[in-house]
Amino acid sequence: MARGDLLTRLDEAVAVVRARAALQPAIGVVLGSGLGAFADGLDDPVVIPFDEIPHLSASTVEGHAGALVVGSVEGVPLAVLKGRVHFYEGRSLEEVVFPVRVLGRLGVRTLCLTNAAGAINPTFQAGELMILRDHINLLGNPLVGPNESELGPRFPDMSCAYDPELRRIAQRAAAAAGATAHEGVYVAFTGPSYETPAEIRMARTLGADAVGMSTVPEVLAARHMGMRVLALSCLTNLAAGASEEPLDHREVLLVGERVRSTLIEILTRVVTEASEEP
Ligand code: HPA
Prior knowledge:
The chain is built from eight helices and nine strands. The protein is of the alpha/beta class. Helix 4 (164-176) crosses helix 8 (260-274). Hypoxanthine is lined by residues 116-118, 194-195, 211-213, 236-237, 239, 247, 252.
């Protein structure tokens, strides 16, 4: 497919969103497993199911009901992706990052992503949070292929993918919410099987603190477009090999549910403070 087509598809998607939602979002939010409730708390929400947006495919995973919700929190206009598409669902990486690119074309300059992740760092506990400081990408790169220069450069810099000021805001927000927020390195595997204990030992040796199956493609696409990025992991479980318990997606959803109100409080503070930034 010619890459010019990507711009056309993005324009078609953006046109549908603009026709339904008049609000100009300043900040984008991507909600991971079990965290969709944040979108339900927006003021004056316009809910656009993913399957009503051209070229945007709906997710099939339990806990990932897909919709773009445009609305505001404490007066800050937001575009929230409730649910995401994962590479492990059999979608191309271009499909995985399409919704984030739609946000970028809508004018979103700051993107906050959330995910569920397994804790690798032995000092981390299930139920705590991790603010991503950096990542290790073992999932594949959505920027492979001819570069669409209208979106961004051929070789985007990743030396500071996660904005330091947004990380400071998130740290303050977590402290105010009484939550433990570590900072660390997220490693992305393709999934959908959870990792083996040997893979987790490898990831720990490589310097990873938490493991998941998402986020990194979206971060790459957002940085390509020059957006400021913050990503928060809800550590829903200890990574494989660290506990006697087998890993279970239902447990991931349950822990996500438990820390949900804290995460919503943190996200609310982050978006209001981030909107005050230059
Ligand atoms: N591994 C990968 N992805 C995850 C995990 C995990 O342990 N927990 C939540 N998402």
